[in-house]
Specification:
The protein is built from 20 helices and nine strands. The chain is mainly alpha-helical. Among the domains are: about 1-195 and about 490-515, Alpha Horseshoe (Serine Threonine Protein Phosphatase 5, Tetratricopeptide repeat); about 275-400, no CATH class. The longest helix is centred in the first third of the chain and has 25 residues, at about 135-160.
């Protein structure tokens, strides 16, 4: 069975310490005598490191964190279709940037990431109480990285992050709020501190924190440092990207779609850090990748519940070389499912090859048109990135291991940093290296002869679409508040989200972001 105990062998600690967050959750103080024997027993060290790893799964919940990073951009739109997909305007508000402090998705993500941060602190503190050995020291370093990672996510979304030291067990004390340069510098120094003590991918795989993951995160932190901390750190981004690329542990493969099949594991050579998944457990609908986008009639195998929701925009589709780029279309799953991976456009078919119909009997032909407030069933180009497993017994539990850091992203990170640092030739080499591995079968994706910042943004879209990076990229390129299909220009204050009302209510040091 393909699985890692980090995610699936959760103990009582998953529940007991999930309430020790930095928001309203922190007010549910845990009686430290509960489970006292457990936290004093070194044999339970695995149970302490499991919960912060388990919280990573929240990063791939399409309706929460993924939604904030995607539905707010030109890559993803969830239009209302008749009485479907209105949900009190929540999806429309994300697309047109009219959310407020009480938006349910904001509260859910804040709470989920704060739990991950709190669970990391819990692991650091209690594992530190045991007699130290190689295992306990390793887990503490991993937990410190995970704490830094959750802080990075919170800071990226809100521009502020509450923090309390791991040994501060008096939860009536308000956590410190870090923001601006102070916040990003703290996160960077934490990752740097543990990096030399982490193991490599060869030693522990991609489902554990590794030196490669730390170097990759540092490269991305420095790439975004101008946005986060107000200064250019391109040379530092290049240096840490070099460390990942030159490690020899990762490889850009010629088969792009091999990363996104239902049987893919963390062993894939492109993966740096992954969230292990399984359809052998009931994991809830947040981790499925086809149900929310496919039309009601596109049933196949054991997938009988499809919701006809999320699409991409014509603004994004129009940037593509549809004929030559393998990333646009792949048909390897069509015999089992009736549809392709990539972008679904035009007449749709069932697994038997018969053309499908809408509920009114008209042909099911996906078109690029979108009317945000009331789209017909067939409006919107659909996207299938991760292949479903037709024979699954749990259609709401994806079997695809999901990368949250992968090597192609780091090549593109280095290319962008080189370009912004004045090395256009070096940037062009990295971009063309990725493109050289992404030609459609029997075609040739042409190399770029010159390069602009917009070319780099486009290439990031081609490589990483629907993987939860687009909002951050558009902000860094100054385009997040611009216009695209069904979205007007919005105010610059929207580059950070409104802090949830529930978070402000319990922390007097948290002040609402400008514009809300």
């Amino acid at each position: 069975m393909k699985r890692n105990n980090i995610l699936f062998s959760l103990s009582v600690f998953f529940l007991a310490f999930s309430m020790m967050g930095c928001t309203d959750l922190e007010e549910n103080i845990i009686d430290e005598t509960l489970g006292g024997d457990l936290i004093r027993n070194p044999n339970n060290v695995q149970s302490l490191i499991n919960p912060p790893y388990a919280s990573l799964r929240q990063l791939i919940e399409w309706y929460d964190y993924w939604g904030l990073q995607q539905i707010t951009t030109d890559e993803t739109v969830f239009p209302t279709r008749g009485t479907d997909w209105f949900d009190n305007g929540a999806w429309q508000q994300l697309h047109v940037h009219t959310w407020n402090a009480d938006h349910i998705r904001l509260k859910n993500v804040w709470d989920a990431m704060s739990r991950g941060l709190s669970r990391s602190n819990t692991a650091i503190h209690y594992i530190g109480q045991f007699e130290q050995n190689e295992t306990t020291e390793q887990y503490i370093n991993e937990a410190r990285f995970l704490r830094a990672y959750y802080m990075y996510v919170i800071y990226d979304l809100w521009g502020k992050v509450p923090f309390r030291p791991s040994d501060q067990l008096d939860f009536s004390v308000t956590p410190q709020v870090l923001e601006g340069k102070e916040a990003v510098d703290f996160i960077i120094e934490e990752v740097k501190a543990v990096l030399p003590n982490l193991k490599t991918r060869t030693e522990v795989g991609t489902e554990r924190v590794t030196q490669g993951a730390a170097n990759a995160l540092l490269a991305k932190l420095y790439l975004n440092y101008e946005v986060y901390g107000g200064a250019e750190m391109w040379s530092e981004a290049i240096s840490y990207a070099d460390d990942v690329i030159n490690s020899g542990e990762y490889e850009v493969t010629d088969d792009y779609w091999s990363m996104f099949q239902h049987d893919v594991t963390g062993d894939h050579p492109e993966f740096i850090f992954t969230v292990p998944m399984s359809d052998e457990f009931d994991m809830g609908g947040g981790s499925v990748w086809v149900n929310f986008t496919l039309h009601y009639s596109q049933t196949f195998g054991n997938y009988t519940s499809l919701w006809n929701g999320g699409s991409t925009t014509s603004t994004f589709v129009d940037t593509w070389d549809r004929d030559n780029d393998a990333r646009f279309y792949d048909d390897r799953i069509m015999d089992e499912t009736g549809f392709n991976q990539g972008f679904l456009i035009g007449q749709q078919y069932g697994p038997d090859g018969e053309p499908l119909e809408m509920r009114n009997g008209d042909p099911l032909i996906f078109v690029p048109d979108i009317v945000l407030g009331d789209s017909p069933e067939n409006y919107g180009v659909r996207v299938v990135k991760f292949a479903p497993k037709p024979e699954t017994e749990r259609q709401f539990s994806s079997s695809n291991d999901v990368p949250i850091l992968r090597i192609s992203d780091i090549y593109l990170t280095r290319a962008e940093a080189k370009f912004r640092n004045g090395d256009e030739a070096g940037a062009l080499e990295d971009i063309n290296f990725i493109r050289s591995h992404r030609s459609a079968e029997g075609m040739e994706l042409p190399e770029l002869e010159t390069l602009t910042l917009n070319d780099i943004l486009d290439e990031r879209g081609f490589e990483l679409y629907w993987e939860g990076f687009r909002r951050q990229d558009l902000i860094r390129f100054g385009k997040f508040t611009g216009t695209w299909q069904e979205k007007p220009a919005t105010d610059a204050t929207k580059t950070v989200f409104a802090l949830p009302t529930s978070a402000i209510d319990v922390n007097e040091d948290l002040t609402q972001n400008d514009g809300y």
